[in-house]
Automatic annotation (TrEMBL):
Annotated ranges, domain Hen1 N-terminal: 1-243
One Pfam family, short name: Hen1_L
Name of the featured protein: Small RNA 2'-O-methyltransferase
Protein keywords: Magnesium, Metal-binding, Methyltransferase, RNA-binding, RNA-mediated gene silencing, S-adenosyl-L-methionine, Transferase
Protein family: Belongs to the methyltransferase superfamily. HEN1 family.
Alphabetical GO biological process terms: regulatory ncRNA-mediated gene silencing; RNA methylation
Species the sequence originates in: Kineococcus aurantiacus
Length: 457
């Protein structure tokens, strides 16, 4: 497995060989380091004032990988592509041998850190789960000129066709730290695999290496999902944090997204005021936008927010300034809507805003029992996307839903049937409202159901 990075002289007063200062590796020496099943070599095939080329060569022992990487998947096979393919093994090696450059530090020549170098990166065996087009989609928005050549399965047997590997070359002008960070994140994304276990610490790595560019990348959802190996709780947490960095909602397809969110919040506040609710719990409160509006209104004597995401609750608490200005009326805590929780019982109203569509259909029954049967507030307000309106969003991708974590989206008749069934089983009457601007026969983008507990005669 090999990567070559070539740098041209970035300025008349800066020879190309100064790249060695940035990489913290002397051009006249060969560095060799061993980490488990991987031996990494760093050497300079070319070093002149006009051009400097550094090569990173990985020698991977597939047998040792089997012993250290478990007995499943590609790492469980003694014969695999890891010694040859530019995978997460290469990303980790880059993080080890170029740690100071990746962090944007250069003690000997700090003036070089922010220099934009004319660079050429070559990855002769790059695995692509998604084909060569994915390489272009990932790197071109970052300013790289991309050339890819699909490699055959076997040059001697043309009938076998193409492999999933490409010979990729990237050219562009950027900081060395940025180029290394993009490789660190995107190599395992292209492979759609990692050789190590992924936990919460990977979110911090992703934001540390990708925060400056990933928040605005058009493929940030795909990158986040693949980098975190499709672990939904981690992906949602990371997308929320990236959305905060980008200062826009994580949902990229509701246009304009902030305006529809404002419409939803205004509609919920109007209905809560109309109902005369004083004690309100926001179930799945996210980052606390509705909570902040409720807390600012003195008519609400108790305002509670719950969410399964600890990260979202921290953001909500920070926005509510609960650490600096405690309010006895307001509190937030972690809770799952599919498990009984006595802390959400006894409220005048409960809000489920853009929540139900994130629940797997087999788990909806548990949510219904917990919210309508056990917590049993006087009123329940439920908002969810109107699937009929999706034809007005030409930018929808993938499964055609508005958010990558949506398990389903209901049409208005489907939502009405669900609401009627829940109401009849748990003793609620239901009325329906549209939220946002209606477009022809497709209706409003959001649908709102207001459940009210029936009073025994």
């Amino acid at each position: 497995m090999i990567l070559t990075l070539s740098a041209q002289r970035p300025a008349p007063e800066v020879p190309a060989g100064d790249l060695g200062f940035l990489l913290h590796k002397h051009p006249d020496r060969v560095l060799t380091s061993e980490h488990g099943a991987v031996t990494t070599h760093v050497l300079y095939p070319r070093n002149t004032p006009e051009e400097c080329e550094v090569a990173v060569l990985l020698d991977v022992d597939p047998v040792a990988l089997v012993r250290t990487g478990g007995d499943t998947g590609v790492l469980g096979q003694h014969v695999n592509d890891r010694p040859y393919a530019a995978s997460s093994l290469l990303a980790v090696a880059l993080g080890r041998v170029f740690s100071t450059a990746l962090a944007g530090r250069c003690t000997a020549r700090p003036d070089l850190v922010d220099v934009r170098w004319p660079l050429r990166l070559r990855l002769p065996s790059l695995p692509c789960s998604g084909g060569p087009a994915l390489v272009h989609r990932l790197f071109e928005p970052l300013g790289w000129r991309v050339r890819t050549t699909v490699l055959p399965l076997d040059e001697t047997v043309p009938a076998w066709g193409e492999s999933r590997y490409v010979d990729a070359e990237l050219e562009g002008t950027c900081r060395v730290a940025d180029a290394l960070a993009q490789l660190y994140v995107l190599l395992p994304v292209l492979d759609d695999a990692k050789h190590y276990w992924v936990g919460e610490s990977e979110i911090d790595k992703l934001l540390r290496r990708g925060g400056d560019w990933l928040a605005t990348h058009p493929e940030r959802e795909l990158i986040t999902r693949r980098y975190l190996l499709h672990a939904r709780p981690l992906v949602l947490d990371a997308l929320d944090r990236l959305a905060e960095l980008d200062d826009r909602p994580a949902d990229p397809v509701e246009e304009p997204p902030a305006r529809l969110a404002d419409h939803r919040r205004a509609a919920l506040l109007a209905v809560l005021a109309e109902l005369g609710a004083a004690r309100v719990v926001d179930l799945g409160c996210g980052q606390g936008e509705l909570l902040r509006a409720l807390a600012a209104d003195a008519r609400y004597t108790a305002v509670v927010g719950t969410d399964v995401s600890v990260r979202a609750l921290r953001t909500a608490s920070r926005r509510l300034r609960l650490d600096r200005q405690p309010d006895d009326r307001v509190r937030v805590f972690q809770s799952s809507l599919t498990y009984r929780d006595e802390r959400i019982a006894g409220f005048d109203a409960a809000v489920l805003s853009e929540v139900v569509e994130h629940v797997d259909p087999p788990r909806l029954g548990a949510l219904e029992r917990v919210v309508f049967g056990e917590a049993a507030p006087t009123h329940v307000l439920v908002t969810t996307p109107n699937a009929e309106h999706n034809v007005n969003y030409p930018g929808l991708r993938g499964n055609g839903l508005r958010h990558p974590d949506h398990r389903f989206e209901w049409t208005r008749p489907q939502f009405a049937r669900w609401a009627a069934d829940v109401g009849s089983r748990f003793g609620y009457t239901v009325r329906h409202l549209g939220v946002g601007e209606a477009v022809g026969s497709t209706g409003a983008p959001t649908q709102l159901a207001v459940f009210t507990k029936e009073v025994a005669a």
